[in-house]
Design goal:
2 domains; four-stranded antiparallel beta sheet; Jelly Rolls
Length: 212
């Protein structure tokens, strides 16, 4: 409880990622700009993108949300203005939010650029705490403590995930070292046996030639 009280005193800072997206002619994976983040399985993720410009201005911004194991969470086309997407992660892996700006008109555009403002909320930050506070009739302090408690639980779960992953990596490392050790012993034994066989063979050969 002391930890929750201390965390409640900390300011909650949230800043969106802002960047410019230059329009390119034609579709190509090389023209995509992707932002990667890690998420654990069954975690709520809310992606909010604010794209400048208007539809039909000679540029088209497409989004693609996917993860590293092949799951696809959406492909919004011709995004202009605010676009919000929510999904629940299907695996413990990294996911990418990709943007591509392509030229659609034949007329020359002086500055073919769209400005993108991206905000990604994960876990407790992705939940609508105003609605939760209204539905459960919570006081503002109670809602803040509830949110901080869920954030702490997510941190504990992530630390547990990292501990399990470190344990698996350590087991793999120890197994590999054991295999390398026995492979080295086997190689040395094979070389010793080959050397002994060569000595016996050469002695028999020289005796057959009456050289020794």
């Amino acid at each position: 409880m002391k930890l929750l009280g201390a965390l409640a005193l900390l300011p909650i800072l949230s800043s969106a990622l802002k960047f410019d997206l230059v329009a390119q002619s034609g579709h190509s994976a090389k023209n995509e700009r992707c932002i990667r983040n890690f998420v654990t399985q069954d975690t709520l993720v809310v992606v909010t993108a604010i794209v400048s410009g208007n539809r039909g201005d000679g540029m088209m911004v497409n989004m693609h949300i996917k993860d590293a194991v092949g799951n696809d969470y959406g492909r919004p086309k011709d995004v202009a203005g605010e676009k919000r997407m929510a999904f629940t992660s299907l695996a413990d892996t990294a996911f990418d939010v990709c943007f591509e700006n392509t030229l659609t008109g034949r007329s020359h555009i002086p500055n073919p650029t769209r400005h993108v403002e991206l905000d990604i909320d994960i876990g407790a930050d992705a939940r609508d705490w105003s609605a939760i506070q209204a539905n459960e009739k919570l006081k503002p302090v109670e809602a803040d403590l509830r949110r901080i408690e869920e954030t702490v639980n997510e941190i504990v779960q992530e630390m547990e995930y990292l501990r399990i992953r470190e344990q698996k990596l350590r087991d793999t490392n120890e197994s590999t070292n054991e295999r390398v050790k026995w492979f080295a012993f086997g190689t040395m034994g094979m070389l010793v046996g080959l050397g002994a066989w060569q000595v016996v063979y050469l002695r028999a050969y020289f005796r057959s030639k009456h050289l020794i």
